[in-house]
Design brief:
With 108 residues, the protein is an all-alpha fold. The protein has one domain (14-106). The chain is 66% helix and 0% strand. It contains three helices and no strands. It has helices at 11-33, 38-73, 79-90. It is rod-shaped. The model has no long low-confidence stretch (mean pLDDT 83).
């Protein structure tokens, strides 16, 4: 009768911890860097702050434009407003006037 002697291997005791570490590493990585992870939540908070600031700027601009529209809306256009718009669109001035050119970034 043949008898075989096997050397005991410890690979069975190592497989489970290695698989568990692989799963923990995978889910840990995605918990931090994933689409809904910790890092992404910080980016969303920063984006929200930027968009709220942009919204406030747009609301201010809209209020300014609405006030200008109200000057022309009630049936009578103010002469100064009409004169200003006509000169700006036609790019004309009177000979005795001084023209001051301002950039658009100054709120004009």
């Amino acid at each position: 009768m043949w008898t075989r002697q096997y050397k005991k291997r410890n690979t069975g005791a190592v497989i489970l911890p290695v698989v568990a570490l692989a799963f923990l590493g995978y889910f840990g990585f995605h918990a931090f860097n994933g689409e809904f992870g910790i890092y992404s939540s910080y980016e969303l908070v920063e984006r929200k702050a930027r968009l709220e600031a942009q919204l406030a700027d747009l609301k201010d601009e809209r209020a300014r434009l609405e006030s200008r529209v109200l000057l022309m809306h009630d049936g009578t256009i103010e002469k100064d407003m009409l004169d200003e718009q006509a000169r700006r669109s036609l790019n004309l001035t009177k000979p005795d006037e001084i023209t001051i050119i301002r950039s658009r970034s100054n709120g004009n």
